[in-house]
Amino acid sequence: MSGSVKKTVSIIDVAKLAGVSQQTVSRVANGSDLVKETTRRKVRAAMKELGYTPNLQARALRVGRSKMIGMVVKFYRNNDLADVLEGVSRQVSKLGYGIMMIPVDNDASETLSGNARYILSLNLDGMIVFSDDDISDESAEELSHIPTVVMGALTRFPAWWSYVDMLEGRISELVVDHLLSLGHRTVCHIAGPLSFPASVRRVEAWRAALERHGAPVPQYVESEDWMPDEGYRAAVRLLDMYPDCTAVFASDDAIASGAMKACRERGLEISRDVSIVGVDDVLGYFVPGNVLTSVRRDFVAAGSGAVRLLLSMMKDADKRGSRLEVVPELVMHGSTAKYR
């Protein structure tokens, strides 16, 4: 008899390739939070290379359900993730569910679509997606039986997924309305990296808000990263283009902090000479005496709301495609003032 028999890959093989214990592999397969993220990634890479599939279906058959909710996240400098996880954890722990973290990245094999078959193998009761990665039609169809809630800034996802809308456009409207109400002629904008859908939405909404008020629409500048140094460089370019700029909307607080530094180096006093607004209201955690007016979004409430949407879908399929809005709030800290 010719031909070869494909060897069954065991947990021992995965542990050997990853250089970890069998217990660690088991913990990763079962979604334990006792494993470091670097180790989790190494184990998952070994699972993929060997074609190992965790046998979670057997456990699910024993208990009727897996009692696991998948949390698909992109970790790239995601300052909001801790708050989202707090909101999610508050809800799922009350209901006896566990959370399985499923990290995604920009690499083709690590995107949401690239992880579709791995996600299928987990036999999840539901899934929350906190990422800006769009999903392919093929992968969406593969995962269509899993109740799913998406949050973040995805621009393309299945109609049967429910959605927590962080109202990115409303952020820009709040900032523009506030600054123009103070008498500023227009509002300059430092966008976040335009590879992020949230940045694109904020630019579009900023432009639309200025046009709605009949205000001039200046050329925006793009910060190449969500970091103070890049915000500083972008602000230098902006001030070179518009030396008489009196109002700046920065796409997040880190970019805004860099912009404030650039303004001060030009001899401009914050609020008296130039008003600046950021997004996320997190600067106070790092800078004593925070003076940056910012737009706050309640990601704890968003996480809790995502779980509530998910549970309603798990109980009633007709609830699929529901939407929850998390309304942003302008928080005054003193970096804006009336135009002089």
TrEMBL record:
Keywords: DNA-binding, Transcription, Transcription regulation. Residues 9-63 form the HTH lacI-type domain. It comes from the Bacteria. Signal peptide: none annotated. The keyword Acetylation does not apply. It holds the Pfam family Peripla_BP_3. This is LacI family transcriptional regulator. It comes from Bifidobacterium myosotis. The lineage of its organism: Bacteria, Bacillati, Actinomycetota, Actinomycetes, Bifidobacteriales.
